Amino acid sequence: MVTHRLVLRPPRENDLQTLIALYADPAVNRFCAAATPQGAGAVEAQLQGWIAHWQKLGFGHWAIAERDKPEVLIGFGGLMHRSVAGHAGLYLYYRITPQAWGRGLASEMALHAIEQAFEQRHEGAVVAAVLPSNAPTRKTLECLGLRLKGALADGPGSAAALLYELSADRWASLPRAEPEAIAFAA
After folding, report:
1. What are the CA-CA distances from residue 3 to residues 74, 105, 109, 133, 179 (Å)?
2. Model pTM?
3. Phi, psi angle pair for 169, to nearest 5°
4. Sign of CA dihedral 66, 131, 12, 60
C-alpha cells in the first residue's frame, strides 16, 4: 500500500531486528516505556501477534517506510483490535524512528488507517491510548479528529493513559485535509 510519502506493508518475521532496535531507542520509548515489550522474546511475540492479526482479519499494524527508500523501515503502526486496561476497541498505534519525526509521517500513516477503518471497513470508532505527558502525540491525535474520552489505568502503580476516540459519525463530519506535521523533540 502506498500513500503520498509512505509505503505500508504487513509486518514480516524478518522485521524482528528492526523492531527490537526501534524499541531499544530511549527517545522512541520516552513516553511509552511501560508499554514496550522487554527482551527479544517479548518483542518477537508481539510481532507474531501482529502477523496473526493480519492473517485472521486482513489488516493490522504496518511496517512503514518512506516511498523514496522503501527498503528502510522507519517504524510500525496502524490499527488493531485489542483491549487496553479492560477497554476493547480498534486501537491506533505507531512508533516511528526519531529521524522521521516532525514531518507528518505518523499523521499520514494514521490518516490512511483511519480512512480505511471508516470508509472501507465501516468500523464504528477508532481509539488511541497515550500518556498525558506525551503532548506531541496528543496534538497529532487531536489534529486527526480524535477527542479525549477518558482515562485508562493498567493497574496499581502504573500511570493512567488518556483514551482518545474518533467515531464514524464525527469522521463523516470532518473536512478532509492533509495532516499537520507536529514538532516532536527528542
Report:
1. 15, 10, 8, 30, 12
2. 0.88
3. -65, -45
4. negative
